[in-house]
Design brief:
15 strands; globular; about 280 residues; CNF1/YfiH-like putative cysteine hydrolases; binds zinc ion; single chain; six-stranded mixed β-sheet; alpha+beta; about 25% strand; 8 helices
């Protein structure tokens, strides 16, 4: 069975597969003028981030250009990523001046927000959990890099609070999309990782987010993320989970599976500048 058939069988709304308009990606049916998705990885896929593997810079630049072009020729002028450090810092892109964008690109942040049209925000992952957040009418967006260290620092709720602070958007006005990440099936951890989460109020009274198996301890990143979001007021029906394990599927990059040769997947979201042309 080819890749498309394998995936189409398991994807459900709001997720679909786009293999026609540039690098293949899981497309999110987001509200209003918003474009959002999670690129695929794996052997032969178009890498969108530097990896210590064989991808040359020119190829990466071409893949990024092809992604922007595929989203609509006049929709986005740039793809913006910051320096990810497994922290909890959110940065808001308040305008699209070149100096502002350059400053964000050089800054350390694991969540990016904007209400500006024309700038596509991205985070890069290979097992860590990528989140896309969209105000329900598409007036503001965010993309979040949430590995277990980010989850331990509650970066998801921090980004939700930033929506309120910067844009006056309440938690129950957000749609949240959870992208491909290492699953409960594969994310084996040391006991110290479980201890990081034990005291979290969002997980109080629940043991469903971790499990001991004969091979060791396992953690469910998606369950933890969802519990944290619900605790700060995001409605359960607004949290949409793609439910694809990066480690189990060779069409995804997985740091744990591929080690140093892994590329990175891109989670991207932005408000289209020119909605007439798409
Ligand atoms: Zn798995």
């Amino acid at each position: 069975m080819n890749l498309k058939n394998r995936l189409v069988e398991r994807l459900k709304y709001p997720f679909s597969l786009d293999m026609e308009s540039g690098p293949a990606y899981f497309k999110v049916a987001a509200p209003g003028p918003v474009a959002a998705g999670f690129t695929l990885g794996g052997t032969g896929a178009a890498a969108l981030a530097e990896a210590p593997g064989p991808e040359a810079d020119a190829t990466l630049a071409e893949n990024r250009r092809a992604l922007l072009e595929g989203l609509g020729r006049d929709s986005f002028s740039t793809l913006l990523t910051a320096r990810q450090v497994h922290g909890k810092r959110s940065l808001t892109v308040a305008d699209c001046h070149p100096a502002t964008l350059a400053g964000v690109a050089a800054s350390e942040a694991d969540a990016l927000l904007t209400d500006q049209a024309g700038v596509l925000l991205g985070v890069l992952t290979a097992d860590c959990l990528p989140l896309i957040m969209v105000e329900r009418q598409g007036r503001a967006v965010a993309v979040v890099h949430a590995g277990w260290r980010g989850l331990a620092q509650a970066i998801g709720p921090a980004a939700v609070a930033e929506f309120e602070c910067r844009f006056g958007v309440a938690a129950d006005e957000l749609e949240v999309y959870v992208g491909p990440a290492i699953g409960f099936c594969c994310f084996q951890v040391g006991l110290e990782v479980i201890d990081c989460f034990r005291g979290q109020a969002a997980l109080a009274g629940s043991e469903a987010w971790w499990r001991q198996r004969p091979s060791g301890y396992y953690v469910d990143l998606t369950a933890i993320q969802k519990a944290q979001l619900l605790q700060v007021g995001v409605p359960a029906e607004n949290v949409h989970v793609l439910d694809i394990c990066t480690c189990c599927h060779d069409f995804c990059f997985s740091y744990r599976r591929d080690h140093a040769i892994s590329g990175r997947q891109l989670a991207f979201v932005g408000i289209r500048e020119n909605t007439v042309s798409v």
